[in-house]
Amino acid sequence: MSLSNMPRTKSYDASELDLPDYVWDEYQQSVPMSTYLVAFVVCDFVNLTSGNFAVWARSDALNSARYALEVGPKILAYLERFFDIKYPLPKMDMIALPDFSAGAM
């Protein structure tokens, strides 16, 4: 499974690239953003989705993920009104990482 801040446009078997056990995903081009916002995560997470919001977490952390899915869209809507700036991306994936010392990005 791969994620991007943009919608997936294509997904296909990568066997033609000599990677028979892999899937190749392509996404719409992202808007320009700071490089510190890039993340690579390798995990065995499950997700909860509501509209254009998704929360990814360990299966034993789904209760916390439900809460994040409930409040995330409300917080984003509040910030859009407060700053009078619309969120520029078509979707949001939140990933609950255990023991992430930086806190947030």
From TrEMBL:
Peptidase M1 membrane alanine aminopeptidase domain ranges (all copies): 67-105
Gene Ontology molecular-function annotations: metalloaminopeptidase activity; peptide binding; zinc ion binding
Keyword Glycoprotein among record annotations: yes
Domain of life: Eukaryota
Keyword vocabulary terms for this entry: Aminopeptidase, Glycoprotein, GPI-anchor, Hydrolase, Lipoprotein, Membrane, Protease
Topological category with respect to the lipid bilayer: Lipid-anchor; GPI-anchor
Signal peptide from the UniProt entry: none
UniProt xrefs under Gene3D superfamilies: 3.30.2010.30, tricorn interacting facor f3 domain
Cellular localization per UniProt: Cell membrane
Record GO biological process: peptide catabolic process; proteolysis
Annotated Gene Ontology cellular component terms: cytoplasm; extracellular space; plasma membrane; side of membrane
Name of the protein described by the UniProt record: Endoplasmic reticulum aminopeptidase 2
